[in-house]
TrEMBL record:
Protein name as it appears in the record: Endonuclease/exonuclease/phosphatase family protein
A molecular-function term among this protein's GO annotations: exonuclease activity
Domain of life: Bacteria
Assigned keywords, A-Z: Endonuclease, Exonuclease, Hydrolase, Nuclease
Gene3D superfamilies per record: Endonuclease/exonuclease/phosphatase (3.60.10.10)
PROSITE patterns named in the record: PROKAR_LIPOPROTEIN
Organism per entry: Micromonospora radicis
Claim: Repressor is one of the keywords in the record: no
Length: 277
């Protein structure tokens, strides 16, 4: 596992509680909304059955309309991240962390490439706001890979201080058993190790897992105890730790620019601040 640390503002998820002058009071509980948008854009140019060349522009429109706090991205080229970061930064004070992780070419050890030569992989966007408390990006490759498929799959997480850990992945499509092994590694080894290293924090994992609820194997086999879980009726999944309550899910039309509708999940968390003097 590789960890790259950055310095920047932290996710603006905490609302400032009012204080009564001259009194010692308990700050009220804070209910915070978090909207996570999952997108598989099929933008490598290799999968001709779903590639249109228009998915990134459509994704930018959806991001501007839905205003998510987190966007998870699958099947993108490295340059797509810059376009979608700009779409997410809608007002001058918006600060967005944009992280990209290429898949690895198992034959060369180099980053896997889109048809146009850009690096191909996955991404995470997280909307940040002051105060500046730092963030970090983590990524890794799965120990289990398909030896017949040169595209080696990876996972990617953005750690926003103590407020949030947002992760994505795009798992193997050649074997559901292999996809389940990768899912189990991410949720059973990689994410717990991040919690052990940096402290537990509310966590969401969202992506195209190439696993289905009710499938064989069933995606629920890799969902840890206590996690919430929702799916789009297909292979796009979201898991969240117990601090995050899943309130609603919705598919968002991508106007036939890719083979997956966008998957939007709304979550809330209730925080209990300490007493204020």
């Amino acid at each position: 596992m590789v960890r790259r640390a950055y310095h920047g503002p932290v996710v603006g998820l905490i609302l400032v509680a009012a204080l009564l002058a001259g009194c010692t009071v308990l700050r009220p509980a804070e209910t915070v909304r978090l909207r996570v948008l999952q997108l598989n854009l099929c933008n490598s140019g290799m999968a001709l059955g779903c590639y249109t060349g228009r998915a990134v522009d459509q994704a930018a429109e959806v991001i501007r309309a839905e205003r998510p706090e987190v966007v998870t991205l699958n099947e993108i080229c490295s340059g797509d991240v810059d376009t979608l970061e700009r779409a997410m930064r809608q007002v001058p004070d918006d600060v967005v962390v944009a992280a990209f992780q290429p898949a690895r070419n198992g034959r060369t050890g180099e980053p896997y490439r889109c048809v146009d030569g850009q690096r191909y992989g996955i991404g995470v966007l997280v909307r940040l706001a002051a105060p500046d408390r730092g963030h970090a990006v983590h990524h890794g490759f799965y120990p289990a890979q398909d030896p017949a498929d040169p595209e080696q799959r990876a996972w990617l997480c953005v750690e926003a201080g103590t407020d949030l850990l947002a992760c994505t992945t795009h798992l193997a499509y050649t074997s559901a058993t292999l996809a389940l092994a990768q899912c189990t590694h991410l949720l059973g080894t990689a994410v717990p190790q991040l919690h052990a290293d940096s402290g537990h924090r509310p966590t969401v994992v969202s992506g195209d897992l190439n696993l289905r609820q009710g499938g064989s194997p069933d995606v629920r086999s890799c969902v840890p105890a206590g996690y919430g879980h929702r799916h789009d009726g297909g292979v796009q999944q979201l898991m969240a730790t117990a601090e995050l309550k899943i309130d609603a899910t919705r598919s968002v039309d991508m106007d036939r620019t890719t083979d997956h509708a966008a998957f939007l999940v709304t979550l809330t968390t209730v925080r209990q601040p300490p007493p204020a003097a």
